[in-house]
Amino acid sequence: MTSGRLEAFSDGVIAIIITIMVLELEAPKEYTLEAFFEIVPTFISYFVSFLYVSIYWVAHHQIFKIAEKINGEILWTNLHLLFWLSVIPFTTNWIGDGNHHTDVTPVVLYGFVLLMSQLSFMLLRNSIARFHGKTSKVAMCLDKKALDFMCVLIYVIGLSLATLNTFVAMALFLLVGILKVFELNSISKEVPPS
């Protein structure tokens, strides 16, 4: 089985996820600077979530450019990733709604969803590498164990610190996103152009 259909389906799901997030953004009711500042947490949560969904979309595209074939396990691990990505709009909305960006429960849930997205993407990459063979070029391009471990560790630290300071937790979640942008840059050098 080729990966084209899986990639097209995933692109559609990710496009819907981004659309749902942007539809959750509401303009201020008043035309004042104070009203704008009231929605800044909502916009920041949208920006971080958009960054994450974009990162996974680009990474997904890159790995399926080098994956020559797929199997049932890869289909299911891909759906596992899409499930966790599809929960991001809910957690984004909860954090951005009112003053919940400082509440522990929404921030912990948001971080947990991001952690599960990371773990499910790692599972997807491992499924692809295993299917193509551990010594294949595909497996070597997808081997990012050190960075994966560091990202998971930062998420765990962020989740642990959320009870003390939600801003520190969110900063750590954003740090993982920045690290993942650098990871994508390094992968793009290994992936042939479209």
Task: Explain how this protein is built.
With 194 residues, this protein is mostly helical. The protein has one domain (4-190). Helices cover 81% and strands 0% of the residues. The chain has seven helices and no strands. It has helices at residues 4-24, 33-66, 72-96, 104-132, 137-142, 145-161, 166-190. The longest helix has 34 residues, at 33-66. It is globular. The mean pLDDT is 88.
Keywords for this entry:
single chain, potassium transport, 7 helices, potassium, ion transport, mainly alpha, 81% helix
Summarize the structure.
It is found in: Membrane. The chain is mainly α.
Secondary-structure element order, as H and E? HHHHHHH
Biggest sheet architecture: none
Tally of separate domains: 1
Number of strands: 0
Termini distance?
20 Å
**Secondary structural class:** mainly alpha
Mean pLDDT comes to 88
- The percentage of residues in β strands lies in under 5%
| Helical residues, percent | over 70%
Oligomer state equals single chain
Uncertain segments:
none
Overall form: globular
**Number of helices, counting only DSSP H or I runs of 4 residues or more:** 7
The Cα radius of gyration reads 18 Å
